[in-house]
Predict the structure.
Amino acid sequence: MRVLQEVPDYSLIIIDEVEASLHPKAQRRLINFLIELSRLRRAQVIVSTHSPYILEELPPEARILLLPTATGPSVVYGASPEFSLTKLDDVAHPEAFLYVEDNFAQIWCREILATHPEGADLLSHIKISAVGPANVVAMMGKLASEGKLPRPGLGVLDGDQESKPGCVKLPGDKAPEQIVFHGLRAANWGQLHDRFGVGAGSLHTYFEDAMLNPDFHKWPELVGDKILKSRTSVWETIVTEWCRICLDNQTRDAFVLSVKNVLPENSGQGAKNI
């Protein structure tokens, strides 16, 4: 620590396995010290780590994943901590991966697939991974389409993103929260009052009030605060209802076909027609 505090301006500091022998709390304190040091000294700090505590303290632009591919390592910027620590040869051995931005997209993607008659079987062949921002999804989709990853894969971008090679988009042309909330509002909120066990009048007011907030990412959380449920629990419930009453078969089947097309033909799914 003394040496670090005495480095001259514009230094390059490289630390291998920065978390070694440190308690999680100490890991967080150390990485925040290094971030502050880089600002004060105008220094560049490069650390290697396998610690989620270190990764969680870093802003997305500071996380760089060296991803092994068939043609050598590829550099992925901004990968989520969870994906950065995920081994592609995990015990489940899925036959293909779907790469999505976050947990909300992961849940929505799963529910769309689950509504299809072959959904349960299809979901048993794939793994849906939340990998980080759209640029990471696009990178993973591109690498998968070029056959550079250990297993087939498909990037799944939010509807408000531009189309990219190796990627398919979620329904609509806006962010998931906007598509789902506005779709349910147009359907008078379906049977959400039964699903949540809350009176329709009160529940509809909670949803309408949440949608007045300009930050649509907060809408599930604002509803959850009113009915005492987590934002994830709210989102799981409303996307299930959206899929039931708002998702048309044509959109669903096109999405399912895109997923099936990346599966190996010998999986029993890849060669089937819908």
